[in-house]
Fold each of these.
Amino acid sequence: MNTLIFSTALIALSSVVLIDNALSLSCISSACDTIDCRPITECGPGEIKAKGGHCLCCDFCKKIIGEGETCAKNVPMSNQLSDSVVCGEGLLCHEGKCQKSQEVLKATT
């Protein structure tokens, strides 16, 4: 019984590590060559056109969000930026939340 529990836990942990590694793969320079992006002509109020997707190949209309709001994808351990939101002027996405640029720079230097 203990062996079964240990094996199940080991498989689950291995799956999380594999998924995290797949999500964090680097993009090669030609990654966008074969991607067919949907053209974006204009965005709605409170939105901005910005690059998105794993390799930043395509334009997306992203909602501009404020300080303290969540800016990372809802994918555990990936820490990837969201394709649906972008931090407003003077803010950076740091540790999954929009934070004042000056505070982020102070904390990281």
Amino acid sequence: MGIATASFASRWYITLYSGGVVPHRTLLRIWDIFLLEGFDWLYFMALALLKYHEPMLLQLNFERTMEMLNAKMDIQDDNRLIQIAQKISKQARQSRIVSKLKRRYNAIQKQTVDAKSG
């Protein structure tokens, strides 16, 4: 669809999903796991929310998609959402993609600092 994640997910991350992103009961589940697993969990949850709603999102036009992504997400089955996020987390750990991306980010940050100081 060509939608930049910054156009909807920034609010999710900045508020730790508390800014009217998900129902309160779902928010508590997200926070419980976030406190156990750390910040990476927030990214896995964002992907899980998109996957959970994928069938509906693929049917909507751009405007309706943006409305849905910026409104409170309707979560009927918290367990299913958590299972999706856990599967994504497991896949990420097995592929080591998160650690690779963190190393790449740190290298870019170092290059930026070196360029400014040099």
Amino acid sequence: MMLRTRKARLFKEGKFALAKAKYDKVLREFNHVNPQDDEEGKEFANTSNLLNMNVAACYLKMGDCRKSVKTCNKVLEANPVHVKALYCRGMAYMETGDFEEARRDFKRMMSIDKSSEVNAKAALLKLKQTEQAFRIPLGAIGCYIVAKFTPVNTNGRTGGTYF
């Protein structure tokens, strides 16, 4: 329990990279565990999901949204109705400009767990505001485009989409 509190403290202090490193260390140790029965296996899976969610949250806070999505996907593969994984992945999608993916995750949250409705609706409102901020009017034709910025590296290759 002491270790869990320390990692949470690091996260709350904004030391996301250090907290992530601690969570990763525990996850690596989990790779060597073989649950003895179904009950132990269930507890193992829940703990692994919790650790992966903490890693995903660290990635999100560090601005590495693609890794956050990938880590949330691990959790959702193990538990497709993990509401916190849907929320975190939706927030990461929103940050990368994948608005439809974000919307789908937030709506799925509400269909899975009615108690998540407040958080999902708040996220959908933030999503709507973010989308509107990236709409650029095209003058007289009355249309909009959604702006995405794709950086080009010094070698001429494009990187990921960022805002």
